[in-house]
Every structure is written in structure tokens, then in C-alpha cells.
Amino acid sequence: GQQVMQIPQYQHVQEGEDFTTYCNSSTTLSNIQWYKQRPGGHPVFLIQLVKSGEVKKQKRLTFQFGEAKKNSSLHITATQTTDVGTYFCAREETGRRALTFGSGTRLQVQP
Amino acid sequence: SQTIHQWPATLVQPVGSPLSLECTVEGTSNPNLYWYRQAAGRGLQLLFYSVGIGQISSEVPQNLSASRPQDRQFILSSKKLLLSDSGFYLCAWRRDAYEQYFGPGTRLTVT
Q1: Predicted pLDDT at B95
Q2: Model confidence pLDDT, tens digit, residues A18-62
Q3: Closest-CA residue in chain A for B100?
Q4: How far is B62 from chain A (nearest CA, A)?
Q5: Best interface-test mutation with B: which of A97, A105, A108 has the largest number of B CBs within 10 A?
Q6: A98, A91, A74: which is closest to A26 by C-alpha?
Q7: What are phi and psi of A83, to 5 degrees?
Q8: Which residues of chain A have a CB within 8 Å of the CB of B103?
Q9: What is the DSSP string of A44-79?
């Protein structure tokens, strides 16, 4: 399947600091989805981006889709302990009705 | 509203024993269904997906199999478990091009 590279693999921040995770593809994406998995839990859908250059916000979370539709980012402003978890991006697989997930970025927030 | 059920929540099985994990979805019809496996601290590995009754696509060759006997039922099986089958098994459903919903997962430990 077509891969998506996600960086960093892990990040540890102090509460109140910002956090960003990046998702990169070598091929053009039709859309990109973001999920959050809390420790011990299951992934939960956050958002889907479809348009080139699209920016969407959910409170302290800002999602961007690159102009070339080959990369995406999730930025969290002023992290809180409730932000702890692993964030995954996911792409549609061309010709398959399945998502390919990135390897995820694990966020740890120090209170 | 839609609900996805998985059971059991946890399972400890000896090497060589059989496995059957069940997933059911309520509140929707003809969903795409998926089985993922997640090793500890790792990403989501797509194992099988199904776009309809009796239609199974296998992603990774292994000693696991999947079946979809009913529209909203997806079963993951093995005749003989290996140590490497340990992990967190997640069932999910989605409509094409939309977000994916995950079940609560089954933590399988093969001893």
C-alpha cells in the first residue's frame, strides 16, 4: 500500500508548550484524516481535510493540508495533560476502500 | 446512532490454541469493515477488510483469517495461535470516503 511518513515518533513537552506532528506522502493525497488514540484506548476520528491548502481549527488544534496535497500537519497550541496520546494521520488508498495509517506520534505532556 | 461492539475485551490464550474474535456494528447497513492489529506502542496494521457479506480482502499473509457471515458481523479467527499474534485487535467500520469508527478493541496475549 501507499505509505505516509509521520514525524516525530515521540515528543515530550511541558504543559503549555506547543506541539506539532507532520504527515508526508510521496504521492498526492485525495484527502487526509487525523485520529487520536488515548493510552489504552482506541483511535478516535478528529478531522478530514480535502482541499489543497485547507486549514481547519478545533479549539486549540489546527490542521493543515499542504498546497500540493502531499503533506499535512496537526498543531496543538498550549498543550494540556488531556492532549496526551498518539496522533495518527491516515490516507485513502487508491483502488482500495481502506485507510493507510501513519506510524503515529506519541505525545507526552508533563504537568 | 451507530455503535460497534467487540468482545472479549481481554484474552489470554496458549500457543497453538484457536482464536475467534467477534465484531458487530449497529445502526448502519452495508458498512465497510476492518480488522487491525496494534503491537504495544506501535502503529495500526491492517489485517483484513470487507466491503460486503462474504467478501474478504487479506492484507498480510499470516495464520489469521476473517469472515463476514452477516452484513454487520465481522469475525477474526485463527486455528493455531503464535506468540507473535499477541497484540491489540481493533475492529472498525466506515462508509467510503468518510471517517472510520473503531471498536473498543481486544487485548490478546498469547503465552
Answers
A1: 84
A2: 999 999 999 999 999 999 999 999 999 999 999 999 999 999 999
A3: A45
A4: 17
A5: A97
A6: A91
A7: -80, -10
A8: 42
A9: EEEEEE-STT-EEEETTEEEEE-TTSSEEEEEESS-
